[in-house]
Amino acid sequence: MLRHSKASFTFLAACLATTLATAQTVTLSAQQDSSIYESATGNTASGVGEFGFTGGNRNGDIRRYFIQFDVAGAIPAGSTITAARLELDVVQLPPSAVSGPYDAHRATMPWGEGPADGFGQGAPAQTGDATWLHTYFPATFWATAGGDFSATVSASANMNSQIRHTLSAAGLILDVQDFLDFPGNNNGWLIKSRTESPNTARGFAAREFSLTGKRPTLVIDFTAPSAFQTFCDPANNNSSGGPAVLSGSFGSGVGSDLHLSVSGGPLPLADGSRMLGYFLVGNMNNAPGITLSDGQFCLVGLGGSFGRYNVGGTDRNSVGFFDATGNLQNIVGTGGTSGFGFDVPSDIEIAGFAPTTIMAGDTYHFQCWHRDTASGSGHSNFSNGLTVAF
């Protein structure tokens, strides 16, 4: 369970941006790969063979290796790619191997991994195979024999030994970002010898290779989009001289797994009296909202409705009092095991709607209402709003 001390709530609120993000890493296996072989007839291929070939053989005949990964299917839309590493295992070298760089170029046309199971010389092409002439054998063709690809090198590595090699460069990051943002642009990469001269051939462990640890992978570091966005932010100042700041975090382990916190609230009076507050939930936000007492209520509008977490004796009771540092502190029977804030339950009730359970993919909107003394007794105010994507 993620919890903060009273002092740390103030620090957290000061550091909270309108969006938060989480750094993550994912390792992808190839979605498809295929080797094509220089041929005037385009009748040779290897779609499902254990090996992927590129470079020139001893006779100078050229092989090229295409590979593709399902980036958009593995990473949340809106994420930012921060690093990308294409890892290939060289498992075959010619006896008189010629050293040189091997480059990854973006493929610019879709291509197929058909059923041909070839080796160094390939196998007879079958329906759906990519070949030297075909994107999909036998009737769909490359614009240029040997495959269509960008002239720009996305990443490069010297592959002169039978080990696992890594291709990683800024160009590869840009490719992966584009594959995520525009999945229709993802035709994968062509891996080719820069010179394609004799004895530059390399045999990679393909995605069907018998030893799974040698198969190709694409390792991606990314920053996922935030689950939290603020609105009506900042809120109107309260009697503390500043606005109440609503923030959230996942990992409570309670109910919906969402914990809400409020800092910057009204301070106790000289006689020690503390100001009351509790949380509200709505099905929409409508910045700048409506003026209500001394604050802006932003959970109402055309089609909007809201519910209150002030139901005593249930897990929908978030009522608390602001302490001497302006943090909303629980009272006995409220839902926040840390002593501060509120653990949002799984079930949600909004006026005019049947009670429902918060599910992954749902989005709800929250504010905190509180009593205040800015303009005399009986006045109240609101925090900023917080949109939460579960």
What do you see in this structure?
- The chain has two domains: 6-20 and 227-389, no CATH class; 23-223, no CATH class.
- Helices cover 6% and strands 39% of the residues.
- The chain has two helices and 30 strands.
- The strands form six sheets. Strands 1, 2, 3, 4, 5, 6, 7, 8, 11, 12, 13, 14 and 15 form a 13-stranded antiparallel β-sheet that branches. Strands 16, 19, 22, 23, 24, 28, 29 and 30 form an eight-stranded antiparallel β-sheet that branches.
- The longest helix has 12 residues, at 170-181.
- The chain is elongated.
- 46% of the residues are buried.
List keywords for this structure.
mainly beta; 2 domains; 13-stranded antiparallel beta sheet; 2 helices; disordered N terminus
Assign an overall shape: elongated
Structural class: mainly beta
Domain tally: 2
Radius of gyration: 30 Å
Give the amount of beta strand, in percent.
Answer: 35-45%
- The end-to-end span amounts to 17 Å
> Major sheet: size, sense and barrel closure?
13 strands, antiparallel
Low-confidence stretches: 1-20
- Helix percentage: under 10%
Mean pLDDT: 90
Helix count, DSSP H or I runs of 4 or more residues? 2
Instruction: Please give the number of β-strands.
Output: 30
